[in-house]
């Protein structure tokens, strides 16, 4: 079993396929990295690339992709609906297995420094890598976007964490950081009353006194005539899936409603499933390396 | 994600380290195979080797190890407490992921044929690969052991499935087959009364009307002063972990006893944990490829 991180860089190009291909090619050609997904949006004029790999390999892939984006994308020409400050807009590292958040913060610092020194692009650190509370949230770092930051960057409170206090003439700035894996999780209810789903969502949402790492809404799934609690689990190591599931089940019961199923949308780290099995089977002393497939890596 | 099998060949040598090393070296040097465990027992004079890999790579590793054992082990000289018929005594293939039992049976046939033709060793097929009911169980195939089978092999009902109807002069015969993964699973009770554990074990054992793929006993764990139901799950795809756990919980409750924990001893296939999480979280439409780490293979 080797250390594994996920990296999800966002690039300010969602229209020109040859540019997107050139950038993703930089990821593909690094040994020890697996490209999982490339998602381009034309109206956002933005591409989200997802890959996993050994930490140093992931850093190299992120750097090479960022260098290629700086070469091919001109922010002076860029238009799109999504907020952005640079050709490579944001690069988060996410711990997947056998690695701590602190190690991902360290990785973000190494990459940020390298981008600043070798590409002359100012770099801001965000989320777990942020050096001040004002830079934890991405919208705060990105305030004014590319056009606004061109001027604002010269004022000391907007100076970058690495690199020159002026925008790269075409590539702008880049935000690098570390955050937890986000699990998109929906719980389906045996009711068509969306208000029940909204009340249950409020019972688990951090802002309403619920779980710290839980964002939730009640929504209606029209084609199934079914109310749903739709959840972003922003740190499954702090607020585990089973706890949210059991709380929703218990709150639903108060309205005479049942949980008829749940859905994990997209990817989930193996550890979240191991944690679930550990809880329900009351496992004692279980270790990841007991999972047969873990011995292949 | 690639097809993956486990292979657990047993060799009739548990004392001479240089012979054991030479055999396991044959496994190690095949690309696409990971050696998980080597367990030698001197009184059994036997070594159990566990490895996983892509099917054709696993077959090659098993063949090469078998050829090396035929070269270095002389059954005429072999003594040990454990029943055996050959230098390579038995080679089971076990489906791990993305592969069916039928494919493992096919693999056993290919390997059996190759051992017979290239090494001139008679091969018997057992368990899921057996061609007649009389050869499903290993003890039936091994009846008379090496010494007895030397004569018996000439009678038509003991003719091998592949190869000559006479023992190899030094390597004897080899039994090849396919079976499910066995999970060793214990459930701990909040009582020191072993009779309660025995009664609960009877409720889940196949022979007492319990689950088809469940072997169970009630035992006392002296150092914790605790009764335990100790279980062999011989096919977790037919009788899943969660069903056995929930039945034990329910039966224990009838005696006013609680389940205080459970233990998975040794390895468990990822799929058994996925199945557990699917059951308890009532997951809809979940696929293995949603497990992030699965995308590395």
From TrEMBL, chains A, B:
This is glutamate formimidoyltransferase. Its EC number is 2.1.2.5. It comes from Sporomusa malonica. Coiled coil: none annotated. It is an enzyme of class 2 (transferase). GO terms for molecular function: folic acid binding; glutamate formimidoyltransferase activity. GO terms for biological process: L-histidine catabolic process to glutamate and formamide; L-histidine catabolic process to glutamate and formate. GO terms for cellular component: cytoplasm. Pathway: Amino-acid degradation; L-histidine degradation into L-glutamate; L-glutamate from N-formimidoyl-L-glutamate (transferase route): step 1/1. It is found in: Cytoplasm. Its main location: cytoplasm. It comes from the Bacteria. Residues 3-180 form the Formiminotransferase N-terminal subdomain domain. SUPFAM superfamilies: Formiminotransferase domain of formiminotransferase-cyclodeaminase. NCBIfam families: FtcD (TIGR02024). InterPro entries: Formiminotransferase_C, Formiminotransferase_C_sf, Formiminotransferase_cat, Formiminotransferase_N, Formiminotransferase_N_sf, FormiminoTrfase_cat_dom_sf, FTCD. Keywords: Cytoplasm, Folate-binding, Histidine metabolism, Transferase. Residues 181-295 form the Formiminotransferase C-terminal subdomain domain.
């Amino acid at each position: 079993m080797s250390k594994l991180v996920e990296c999800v860089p966002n690039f300010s190009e969602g229209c020109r396929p040859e540019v997107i291909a050139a950038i993703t090619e930089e990821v593909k050609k690094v040994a020890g990295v697996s490209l999982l997904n490339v998602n381009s949006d034309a109206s956002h004029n933005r591409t989200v690339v997802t890959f996993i790999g050994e930490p140093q390999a992931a850093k190299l892939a992120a750097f090479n992709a960022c260098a290629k984006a700086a070469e091919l994308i001109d922010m002076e020409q860029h238009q799109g609906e999504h907020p952005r400050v640079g050709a490579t807009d944001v690069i988060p590292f996410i711990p997947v297995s056998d690695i701590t958040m602190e190690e991902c913060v360290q990785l973000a610092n190494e990459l940020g420094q390298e981008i600043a020194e070798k590409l002359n692009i100012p770099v801001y650190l965000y989320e777990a890598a942020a050096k001040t509370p004002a830079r934890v949230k991405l919208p705060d770092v990105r305030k004014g976007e590319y056009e606004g930051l061109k001027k604002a960057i010269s004022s000391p409170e907007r100076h970058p964490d690495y690199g020159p206090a002026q925008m790269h003439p075409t590539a702008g700035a880049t935000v690098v950081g570390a955050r937890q894996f986000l699990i998109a999780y929906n719980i389906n209810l045996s009711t068509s009353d969306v208000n029940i789903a909204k009340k249950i969502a409020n019972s688990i949402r951090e802002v309403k006194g619920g779980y710290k790492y839980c964002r939730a809404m009640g929504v209606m799934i029209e084609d199934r005539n079914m109310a749903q609690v739709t959840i972003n689990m922003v740190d499954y190591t702090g607020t585990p899936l089973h706890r949210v599931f059991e709380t929703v089940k218990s709150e639903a019961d108060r309205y005479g409603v049942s949980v008829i199923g749940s859905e994990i949308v997209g990817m989930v780290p193996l550890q979240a499933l191991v944690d679930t099995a550990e809880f329900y089977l009351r496992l004692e002393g279980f270790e990841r390396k007991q999972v047969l497939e873990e011995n292949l890596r």
